[in-house]
Amino acid sequence: MKATLVIKNIDNLITLRGENKARTLDDMKDIGIINNGIIALSGEKIIYVGEGDLPSHIEVDENTTILDGKGKTVTPGLIDSHTHLVHGGSRENELAMKLKGKSYLEILAAGGGIHSTVKATKEATFDELYEKAKKSLDIMLSYGVTTVEAKSGYGIDDFSTEIKQLEVAKKLNEDHPVDIVSTFMGAHAIPVRYKNNPDAFVDIIIEDMLPKVAEKNLAKFCDVFCEEGVFSIDQSRRILQAAKEHGMGLKLHADEIEPLGGAELAAELNCITADHLIAASDKGIKEMAKKGVIANLLPGTSFNLQTGKFARARKILEEGVAIALSTDYNPGSCPTENLQLIMSFASLIMKLTPEEVITAVTINGAAALGLGEKVGSIEVDKQGDIVIFDAPNLEYIIYHFGINHVDKVIKNGKLVYDSKLTRINNN
Ligand code: NIG
Ligand code: FE
Predict the structure, then answer these.
(1) Any idea what the CATH number is for the domain that residue 125 is in?
(2) Whose CA is nearest to atom 3 of ligand 1?
(3) CA-based Rg of the chain, rounded to a whole angstrom?
(4) pLDDT digit string (tens) for 335-350?
(5) Each residue of 247-258: b (16+ CB within 10 Å) or e?
(6) What is the arithmetic mean of pLDDT over 155-184?
(7) 281: exposed, middle or buried (C-beta count within 10 Å: 0-12, 13-18, 19+)?
(8) Domain tally for the chain?
(9) Does residue 54 form part of some domain?
(10) 146: left (phi over 0), alpha (psi -120 to 50) or beta
């Protein structure tokens, strides 16, 4: 078989080989490290992973791209499995309010927060949203991210804006190297005009919006912001049950700020992930473990909300729940595309080991999107999504925080990012 791309002499090859499902505590320890590793790809797929040289049945010729992994750490492409990628505007105006002690929910209740992004997203054209999201995707790719989840939710009762967001994500998925998985999140805030009758909006989501999103095949998942003053447990349950009937996978913004019982609901409904979980109860965590719900933790949001509260990651792991880690990239509670920074937060603040962190942003991130068979590890027949870090080991990437350690990114077997090409060399 002929190789189109080979990475050889890899000092520290982190394969994450093993089962293609979300891994829990003990299974997160072995990340499949190969020293002096070598990888061969043919077209979009990985055809060989091993140590030393290539076996004789893999041919290399003058058309094969050869990359050198000396001094490098190589991992599967990173997966950011929770973002609000497509949106208009930004919310730096909230910084002053935050510094004066206004909380996220106070800003939202006063008609700001998500509502101000709804306005900006409504006003933006398809092309404006596309260009803005593309810029973010380029940044994510440069940080080693090769698969991203993207939620709607900045149209809410303006359904055409919800559809516009999902169509931008669909087009970017076609045009951009990064793969995008879409989630419908019309239930992201109670629209101001439904303030006194939120159930009427829930009815509209169930009766009008969900059937249309499903018919147009615009979203693989459905998500709800289940929170005090936003969607209640009962409303969230009704929406997600309806989404399930349309064949969508289920996700839930659960117990982000107040302990409403979101973790319990995610377990009851067999959600694929429950996200945030900062205020999740012991009971909720146990029920998630029983049902195999993945905890998608977002420490960048805790950092940015400045409440000093982070999800109890060690407790969650020790109860037997698998963890994924994501940015939550959005203009309000986490305006950053930098998943490497989130990896450092997860380790330094939530006390996850480097092995747990890398598992959470690769194979567990893949499982959080139902893509465990395709991506998330470096193994034969998997998609050729690979990151070459200019770092001697994984600990170094997490410890030397806040900067970008990526040297090169390979997506679907092609070299799509090279940090050296971004600097103008005029001495
Ligand atoms: O995950 N919590 C709801 N959604 C986002 C924030 C969105 C926004 O503030 O615009 C989150 O934190
Ligand atoms: Fe979110």
Answers:
(1) 3.20.20.140
(2) 225
(3) 21
(4) 999 999 999 999 999 9
(5) ebbbbbbbbbbe
(6) 98
(7) middle
(8) 2
(9) yes
(10) alpha
Q: Please give the angle made by the CA atoms of 282, 299 and 72, to the nearest 5 degrees.
A: 125
Take residue 209 and report the two structure tokens written for it.
Answer: 């919006």
Cα 395 to ligand 2 centre (Å): 27
CA triple 386-392-395, angle to 5 deg: 90
Q: Report whether residue 236 contacts ligand 1, using a CB cutoff of 6 Å.
A: no
**Residue 405 resides in a domain:** yes
Residue 39 and residue 133 share a domain: no
176 and 254 assigned to the same domain: yes
335 and 387: one domain? no
Residue 278 lies in a domain: yes
Dump pLDDT digits (tens) for 142-156: 999 999 999 999 999
- Within a domain: 35: yes
- Mark whether 110 and 62 lie in a shared domain: no
Q: Which helix (H) or strand (E) holds 268?
A: helix 262-268
**What range does the domain containing 46 cover?**
5-76+377-418
114 Cα to the center of ligand 1, angstroms: 7
Q: Is the CB of 114 under 6 A from ligand 1?
A: yes
What is 4-67 written as a DSSP string? SEEEEEESEEE---S-SS---GGGGS---EETTEEEEEETTEEEEEEESSPPTTSB--TTSEEE
Strand partners, 68: 8
In sign, the C-alpha dihedral spanning 332, 336, 339, 342 is: negative
Which residue, chain included where needed, has tokens 């505590």?
Answer: 25
Are 227 and 170 part of one and the same domain? yes
Q: What is the pLDDT of residues 83-101, one digit of tens each?
A: 999 999 999 999 999 999 9
Strand order in the sheet with 37-42: 45-51, 37-42, 5-10, 65-68
Asked whether residue 307 falls in the same domain as residue 381, the answer is no
Region 159-174: mean pLDDT is: 98
113 in the same domain as 184 = yes
- Residue nearest ligand 1's atom 5 by CA: 333
Is residue 269 within 8 Å of residue 237, measured between CB atoms?
yes
